[in-house]
Design goal:
This protein is an alpha/beta fold. The chain is 38% helix and 17% strand. The model has no long low-confidence stretch (mean pLDDT 97).
Length: 275
């Protein structure tokens, strides 16, 4: 699976390995397994508490740092100018690297002026600590505000996206801005395994429902997917989707599952989501 998308100067592998909820040895082994399998995009975050383990995983995999795309995210309590820069230095130390390919603001924080946060985000890019910058869980209006307050182009907005959630408004905005939209929870926390439409399509192709959901996502222009698993077998099977060819009928049936009510991740600090 070597498909990539171009986003405002960033060359991003469309299938990555997510590390949310992976702890300790599971995180280290997962990253190592993913890179040895062929993934060239690893996603983590400060709040995941596993940046050090991710660093161990990639160094143990024997893959050169310049040969894979690494994303991390700044947590909500580090959005002040100065705090953000210091937190990125800590992240780089834990990740055992002197740069990340993409740094995201993890969630919008209304208590901190966005222009202040974007200034700090641009500062770490200007310092060479990150190659590209972006956001996560930003609505269309917030994305517009972030872009207006950034001297550097934003390359991605990472949001929940899977066959049961309609994210057309955000995806349209990302495409118009030349950005990628990265899909987290791409198999809907396992919900795809219980859906009759997706399981039927999976049987027809002789693959798993997870593979169908990932192929559906990757087939969409500008969409990147970052499935997470602690199972070596699932890490490998999630990667093996290059030969799956969904028909127009398959795609249409999956598209029809999407709904604005399909959101699974909605903490108390969430913004007012696009409808």
């Amino acid at each position: 699976m070597t498909e990539r998308t171009q986003a405002n100067g960033a060359d991003i592998p469309k299938l990555g390995f997510g590390t949310w909820q992976l702890e300790g040895e599971d995180a280290t082994r997962g990253v190592m397994t993913a890179l040895k399998t062929g993934y060239r995009h690893i996603d983590t975050a400060q709040i995941y508490g596993n940046e050090a383990e991710v660093g161990q995983g990639w160094t143990q995999a024997g893959v050169r740092r310049e040969d894979f795309f690494l994303t991390t995210k700044v947590w909500r309590d580090k959005f002040r100018d100065g705090d953000l820069q210091a937190s990125v230095k800590e992240s780089l130390d834990k990740l055992k690297t002197d740069y990340v390919d993409l740094l995201l603001l993890h969630w919008p924080v209304p208590e901190v002026p966005l222009d202040e946060t974007m200034k700090a985000l641009n500062a770490v890019k200007d310092a060479g600590m990150v190659k590209h910058i972006g956001v996560s869980n930003f609505t269309v209006d917030l994305l517009d505000e972030a872009r207006a307050n950034s001297s550097a182009p934003l390359v991605a907005n990472q949001v929940e996206y899977h066959p049961f959630l309609d994210q057309n408004a955000v995806l349209t905005a990302c495409r118009a801005a030349g950005m990628a939209m990265t899909a987290y929870s791409p198999i809907a926390q396992g919900k795809v395994f219980k859906d009759e439409v997706i399981t039927d399509i999976a049987r027809k192709h002789g693959v798993s429902p997870a593979q169908i959901a990932l192929r559906w996502l990757i087939d969409q222009d500008s969409v990147v997917a970052i499935p997470r698993s602690s199972s070596d077998t699932h890490i490998q099977s999630n990667f093996e989707i290059a030969d799956i060819a969904l028909s127009e009928e398959d795609t249409g049936r999956i598209n029809a599952l999407r709904s604005p009510q399909g959101r699974l991740i909605n903490p108390g600090w969430s913004p007012d989501w696009d409808k």
